Amino acid sequence: MIRVQDLTKRYARTVAVDNVSFEVEKGQIVGFLGPNGAGKTTTMRVLTCFLPPTGGEAEVAGFNVAQKPMEVKKRIGYLPETPPLYPEMEVIEYLNFVGRLKGIPKAQLAERVKEVSERCNVADVSTKLIGKLSKGYRQRVGLAQAIIHNPDVLILDEPTAGLDPKQIIETRELIKNLAGDHTIILSTHILPEVEQTCEKVIIINKGKVVATDSVENLTSRLRGSESVAVEVSAKDGELPAQNVQQRLEQVPGVSRVVYRTARDGKLRFEVESLQGRHIRPEIARSVVEAGWNLHELHPVAFSLEEIFLELTSSDKSAQASGATQ
Amino acid sequence: MTNIWIICRKELKSYFASPIAYGLMAFFALISGYFFYAATAIFVSRGMESQMMGRPMPMDVNEWVIRPVLMNVSVIGLFLIPMITMRLFAEEKRSGTIELLATSPVRDFEIILGKWFAALLMYIAILAVSALNILILFAYGSPDWRPLLVGYFGLILQGGCLLAIGTFISTTTRNQIIAGVGTFAICLLLWVLDWVTAFETTATSKVLSYLSVVTHFEPFSKGVLDSKDIIFYFSVIVFGLFLTARSMESLRWRS
Predict the structure, then answer these.
(1) What is the DSSP letter of A90?
(2) Is the dihedral of CA B78, B83, B84, B89 positive or negative?
(3) Which one of A17, A79, A81, A100 would you mutate to disrupt binding with B, by most B Cβ within 10 Å of its Cβ?
(4) Which candidate, B221, B174, B250, places its Cα nearest to that of B65?
(5) The CA-based dihedral angle spanning residues A288, A290, A291, A293, taken in that order and rounded to the nearest 10 degrees
(6) How many domains does the structure of chain B reveal?
(7) B49: how many CB neighbours lie within 10 A of its CB?
(8) Strands, sheet with A293-299, edge to edge from the N-terminal-most edge strand
(9) Most A CBs within 10 Å: which of B7, B103, B110, B248, as the mutation test of the A interface?
(10) Burial environment of residue A236 by CB neighbours within 10 A (0 to 12, 13 to 18, 19 or more)
(11) By the CB < 8 Å criterion, does B97 face chain A?
């Protein structure tokens, strides 16, 4: 559905997007992840034909953005970071205007407007002035605007930025519901959002794609070794952390033990295994045999956050991106 | 064509949804009403004078009232135009709605023409207020309506070309005030260029005077339709809109 090949966008002094390539299949939700200023918005603007690329190619629904912009624009719905709203218009008036602008025939307009305002939960404010709406409603009107012409591709630039937690959940649900009918690219710098809504992640940093993979693959590939959180306490009296640490280090398959905290006599450790070893049963046995209480024992999954930091801050980024290509 | 109309209607709506349209109309009604009153008063007192002298002279309403009023209206137009055009693109750039327009299946020239037509219709609506005054003349006298029509045609052409320039200036900034002040400066310049002919008759002064929009309006105010003035106005309109198109294109390369 979307094919980007060696895309480069250069501004006067800076390179915003540098040789980016990726593909998105029909019906997928793809998360575009990166810190602020990584080039997410620029890439999206190229895809929506707002900016022309400096080099490389981008194709949406089989049409090249540079050569057939009108065809691309007909098939794309775009919600920029700040929803493009006219405060002096009523919601229904605005949706009518956008609908006409996107080329919906007059006869179908009323029906489409009704449909999207129900889908995006803005039907109850349809006769209110946009300037008087709350931020959550504005965001939803923005989303309604993006889907009004039933586009094949939906491009959402930080759709949950600035919303309160309840609105964020609602917006995510809405986006999930839209998948299937539409191919969606959404950008964000919030990691849990990607974990919750997207099937595929494209991590971008300083204008370059650092990794492209499904959420699960990315987590497991980077994990490699298992990391386990352990909490123990003595049956009675004091338990020196050093004793526990030494004992845990002797468990076969353990590569590293880190002492975290002590609270109410409970000591917390983080244990890392060697590559490909399952150490949880061994740890449990070892702790119990020593006569201590085992309060907690669970694997610590690498969150996308850690993956992200790993990929964007260390020299591992080169290996990781090499592995994906 | 439909796209131009969609944009144009949206612009007109936003003029009338805000106090801008009503404010400008009220301001214009006041000033043009004052000039109309002054011109009529002069006309009446001159008429009385010539009768008291004992040798009444035929006096033409078109010559004494309509022409000076139209000339004044054309100058007032210079002050109104920046207020009409300043928001056209500057506001869209500031609020980010330009992204909606630029990513919709609409061509740049459709957006530009739509906005310019809306501005022109707004300007015509304002001019219509002054026509009310002149209609009063028909109730008490018998002015010739043809030169009046030509005069208004000229006003619309003159407005159209200043609006095109204003539209262009509005694309260069995201600040309405800067767009307004810039347009006002250019309008003023295009008006006073004509003054050089008062103290100089060199070739340069002829060129400068030719560039002045007001010079070209004078024949219209007399009821003369001259193709050279019409061509001048049309070429400025086309030039202004062409610059707007180039400027909009450059937004995409720079932004």
Answers:
(1) B
(2) positive
(3) A100
(4) B221
(5) -50
(6) 1
(7) 10
(8) A254-263, A266-273, A227-233, A293-299
(9) B103
(10) exposed
(11) yes
pLDDT tens profile A19-66: 889 988 888 899 888 877 888 889 999 999 998 888 899 999 889 988
DSSP E strands, A11-129:
15-24, 29-33, 55-60, 63-64, 76-79
Domains (ranges, CATH) in chain A? Answer: 2-221 (3.40.50.300), 224-299 (3.30.70.3190)
- From the list A45, A52, A89, which residue is nearest B253 (CB)? A52
Q: Which helix (H) or strand (E) holds A295?
A: strand A293-299
CB B126 within 8 A of CB B25: yes
- What digits encode the pLDDT tens for the residues B150-197? 999 999 999 999 999 999 999 999 999 999 999 999 999 888 887 777
Query: Do the Cβ atoms of A159 and A173 come closer than 8 Å?
Result: no
Closest by CA to B115, choosing from B130, B142, B93, B148, is B93
Give the amino acid at A253.
G
**Measured between CB atoms, which of B17, B18, B252 is closest to A50?**
B252
ipTM: 0.87
Could you list the residue range(s) of the whole structural domain that residue B98 is in? Answer: 2-254
Burial annotation B197-231 (CB, 10 A radius, 16+ → b, else e):
beeeeeeebeebbeebbbbbbbbbbbbeeeeebbe
Amino acid identity of B185?
A: A
